[in-house]
Amino acid sequence: MKFGGFLVNRKLNIYGITALALLILAGIVSASTESHSVVTKGISLANSKQYDDAISYFNRAISLDPQDAEAWYFKGLALTREFKTKEANVAFDQALLLNSNYSNYYISKGLGLYIQGKYTDAESYVDKGLVLNPNDSVGWGVKGIIAEAKGDKAVAIFAYNKAIKLNPNDTTALKAVHRLEHP
């Protein structure tokens, strides 16, 4: 994912951690002042691919404010980057428990389940995220990846096209549609 990028594989190269800082700057994400600064440092470390250090910062933010859903979420993203998907899903579950109204929490949990090969569960979480935010181009791209993995070409093409409609510069979705339509 290129908004930071889960480098799980080439298909996921556009949906990741760099956008995390944008969420904070846009005011979408909030945290207590001290926890917020620790989370921000963790994001910076994650964007520098220092995931173990980032996870330590997210853990520190959680110890400062255990109710900080964003710290749990970012910890989940960093753990996913380290392919620690079971631990990541625990963090995503906690983030969802604290704030079930944020679509990215569901989509990220779905991505972790996808990586574990749990496609049906992954799809369910991504769909929940898309109900909350049907204009989430990343969510539609992840839905396309999951549908493709499940062998559902029609749904994959639909989802990728929806991602492209929402973000015409989504090169991963563009390439996926081309690959699926022109095997």
Structural description of this entry:
The structure is a single chain. With 183 residues, the chain is mainly α. The radius of gyration is 16 Å and the shape is elongated. The two termini are 23 Å apart. 70% of the residues lie in helices and 0% in strands.
Brief summary:
With about 180 residues, this protein is an all-alpha fold. The protein has 10 helices and no strands. It has helices at about 20-25, 35-45, 50-65, 70-80, 85-100, 105-115, 120-130, 135-150, 155-165, 170-180.
Q: What is the CA-CA span between the terminal residues?
A: 23 Å
Largest beta sheet, briefly?
Answer: none
Number of strands: 0
Q: List SSEs in N-to-C order.
A: HHHHHHHHHH
Strand % is: under 5%
Work out the helicity level: over 70%
Oligomeric state as shown: single chain
Mean pLDDT: 83
Q: What is Rg?
A: 16 Å
Shape: elongated
Count of alpha/pi helices: 10
Q: Unreliable stretches, pLDDT < 50, 5 or more residues?
A: 1-26
Structural class: mainly alpha
Which key terms come to mind for this protein?
183 residues, mainly alpha, elongated
Reconstruct the topology from this structure.
Layout: H1 18-25, H2 33-47, H3 51-64, H4 69-81, H5 85-98, H6 103-115, H7 119-132, H8 137-149, H9 153-166, H10 171-181
Helix pairs in contact: 1-2, 2-3, 2-4, 3-4, 4-5, 4-6, 5-6, 6-7, 6-8, 7-8, 8-9, 9-10
